[in-house]
Specification:
Low-confidence stretches: none
CATH class: Alpha Beta
Number of domains: 1
Strand order of the largest sheet: 3-2-1-4-5-6-7
Shape: globular
Helix content: 40-55%
Distance between the termini: 35 Å
CATH topology: Rossmann fold
CATH superfamily: NAD(P)-binding Rossmann-like Domain
Order of helices and strands: EHEHEHEHEHEHE
Strand content: 15-25%
């Protein structure tokens, strides 16, 4: 997809971390954005930063796993942007510990955000992109969508579900110019890890993920990236 024209981009989970970094980087090309998240104040700050960098940003506040919220946000996005060229389904949550220690509430929240939230946006955006016969879908998954780790059983389960969803969608999109990919990073030094006893110096940086997003969006018509696995370079 060419960066020579102004793209219309939806980013979920855009109030901080990876979502914010993607928005601020792509804003330098003057694109239009609809950003979603659960924190209005932080979304407003990101939208202001996008404008400072040359982009145009609108935002909607709410839970990505809520059907009514997504319906409203989709309608708002179309109204503000006039269409959608790129969907970056980035919202995610994770709770870690032995399987038997994960609460039912933590289980439900992870599947609601990480899986249902992706599904709700895909079911709205895919028909639109099919109709225009172009578009790029990017889902922020994880290296744990391709492997498993102890004390991450439910989080792994959500990301494996996302991988299966996107992989099947790719099969359904054959014969069109609509593309779908996942980005599968290992640990990324974001606010998600604040307060945790981890060495953030050995993690990926958000800039690493942003570069992967750009690679997917900028790929030529003769390329269709399936997924990009990113692992920390420092052991």
């Amino acid at each position: 997809m060419s960066f020579d024209k102004q793209l219309r981009i939806v980013i979920t989970g855009a109030s901080s971390g990876i979502g914010e970094a993607i928005a601020l980087d792509l804003a330098k090309n003057g694109h239009k954005f609809f950003l979603t998240g659960r924190n209005k104040a932080r979304l407003q700050k990101v939208a202001n930063k996008v404008a400072e960098k040359g982009g145009i940003a609108y935002y909607g506040v709410g839970d990505v796993g809520n059907t009514d919220v997504v319906e409203s946000h989709y309608t708002q996005a179309l109204s503000h942007l006039g269409g959608i060229d790129v969907l970056i389904a980035n919202a995610g949550v994770g709770y870690f510990g032995y399987l038997e220690d994960i609460t039912i509430e933590q289980f439900d929240e992870q599947f609601s955000t990480n899986v249902r939230g992706v599904f709700l946006w895909l079911r709205k955006v895919v028909p639109l992109m099919r109709q225009q016969n172009r578009g790029q879908i990017i889902v922020t998954s994880s290296n744990l969508g391709l492997e498993v780790r102890p004390k991450a059983s439910i989080y792994c389960a959500t990301k494996h579900a996302v991988q299966a969803m996107v992989r099947a969608l790719r099969e359904e999109l054959k014969g069109t110019m609509v593309k779908a990919a996942t980005i599968n990073p290992g640990a990324v030094a974001t606010p998600w890890f604040e307060g945790r006893n981890v060495d953030r110096s050995k993690m990926l940086q958000v800039s690493d993920v942003v570069k992967a997003v750009r690679l997917i969006i900028e790929q030529s018509e003769t390329s269709d990236i399936d997924h990009i696995l990113l692992l920390p370079g420092r052991k």
